[in-house]
Amino acid sequence: MTTNNLSQTGDFLSVTRANEWHLEPFSFSLDNGTQVDVLDTGVIQFTPKNCGSKDIVLSSAVHGNETAPIEICDELIKGIIKGELSLSHRVLFIFGNPASINIEKRFVEENLNRLFCGAHKKGEQNNEKIRAAKLEAYVSQFFNAFSDKNRKRIHYDLHTAIRDSKNEKFAVYPFLNGKPWKKEELSFLLSCGVNTIMMMKSSATTFSYFSSSMFDADAFTIELGKVRPFGENDMSRFEKAKMTLTQLITHDTVNYPEFNFADFELFEVYRTINRTQQDFSFPFSDSAANFTGFAKGELLATDGDTDYFAEVDGEAIIFPNAKVALGQRALLTVIPLQNKTDFV
Ligand SMILES: O=C(O)CCC(=O)N[C@@H](CCC(=O)O)C(=O)O
Ligand SMILES: [Zn+2]
């Protein structure tokens, strides 16, 4: 696959995989007048003739082995380039870490999703840190291109989880620094088949927190299912998400069914447990699913000489990973959201 026939095939994923860390920018336009700007490997910007009212970033492959979201975005990009989908808004697609797609791993040297908000500047440089800096720049130019305060900025960072989850699809709502959560965004997520939302309580160096905090974008990390290799995803399980994303980018406005708290399971982070010692372990097996609750007093994790016990009944585990780098998050725990008044 060469870059020359991208305009015929729409196969930007293959172009991206053939150019792991860098691709010279190039542009072309579609018969319907949409401008296509390839900004780098994995980064493609679509500007329809009428720019609409939304600036939408859809990222996948921030972790290379999370293939279902890559397949969804690949299909959307192909549909747009082939003229089967007609955009109503500006859209920036990002395949975050192409080299990690090729090795079918979460990352090459370092977890890209811990390197945003300037974290890439710290310590010895590597390809993932350089990539994080570039992705920040592409997203910044995309959101800053229009100064109109009425435009709606959106960033959905699409992932799949390493473990099974009791609630198969769930979203991380980045910490909003005191601003209220948006019912309309939750209705969008529900339409994607995501009824479980985790409200974060502190800043992070994730991609979604970057767009949320720097650009006031409605941004989420969305976990659409479980990590599986290409070819092993049951794409019917992602149909609602794909259809809802298609509507989002091709319709001027989308009306979701009326918001109802009863349709959701809302959680708040109770605490974050970091791995600080080589000797870090969980008492539960690798098959323990996300959202498994523990009784007060049950052991949750051991970090060197420190044991962490559940402090409240029902404290539930999310993203347990004993192999993270020292200093990084090895476990989140959540409890049901206590205060449901802070919504608009
Ligand atoms: O299943 C897992 O352990 C990780 C799945 C994943 O990649 N989750 C994201 C969440 C990011 C956030 O907190 O917004 C991550 O860990 O980067
Ligand atoms: Zn991920």
From TrEMBL:
Which pathway does it serve? Amino-acid degradation; L-arginine degradation via AST pathway; L-glutamate and succinate from L-arginine: step 5/5
State if Membrane is listed as a keyword: no
Keyword Hydrolase on entry: yes
Cofactor, how bound (note): Binds 1 zinc ion per subunit.
What keywords are assigned to this protein? Arginine metabolism, Hydrolase, Metal-binding, Zinc
InterPro entries reported for this sequence: AspA/AstE_fam, AstE_AspA_cat, Aste_AspA_hybrid_dom, SuccinylGlu_desuccinylase
Reaction(s) catalysed by this chain's protein: N-succinyl-L-glutamate + H2O = L-glutamate + succinate
Q: Which residues form the AstE/AspA barrel-sandwich hybrid domain?
A: 263-336
EC main class here is hydrolase
Q: Which PANTHER family match?
A: ASPARTOACYLASE, SUCCINYLGLUTAMATE DESUCCINYLASE
What the entry lists under NCBIfam families is as follows: arg_catab_astE (TIGR03242), PRK05324.1 (NF003706)
What protein name applies here? Succinylglutamate desuccinylase
